[in-house]
Fold each of these.
Amino acid sequence: MMRCPNCSSKDIGKIGSHQFYCWSCFIELTVNGEKMSVYQVEEDGTLSSLDDLFFGEPIPPQVQANGM
């Protein structure tokens, strides 16, 4: 069973051969093999990628100056 990467809901509907929609948080998911892409559906129906929020590289810790 698929779970939403955003809200962990199981309320996922299939809208295409490799496309799914989360009815809990209203995001669209595309799955190709082991790669998943996550999109926000805009008011005009266009999709905005959210991959950088879910699958981006981890942000390195900031180096703090020690005041010497």
Amino acid sequence: MKYQEFINIDSEIRFGKPCIKGTRISVFDILGWLAQGLSIEEIIEEYPQLNRWQIQACLEYAADKERKIKIAI
């Protein structure tokens, strides 16, 4: 899966934060919910416009960002 299929960065939406395409839900929001211990199923139940692939794309985005930071150091 390529996270770019699910994540969009648009300066007009949430001040340019990476968000799930077609929503105003940011990658940061989803990662925060996961960090708080919410399951993917709980997130989807609370936000039915999301699906498992979109949440997985957020994890992939974060992993890719971390990898790029380590390469730059």
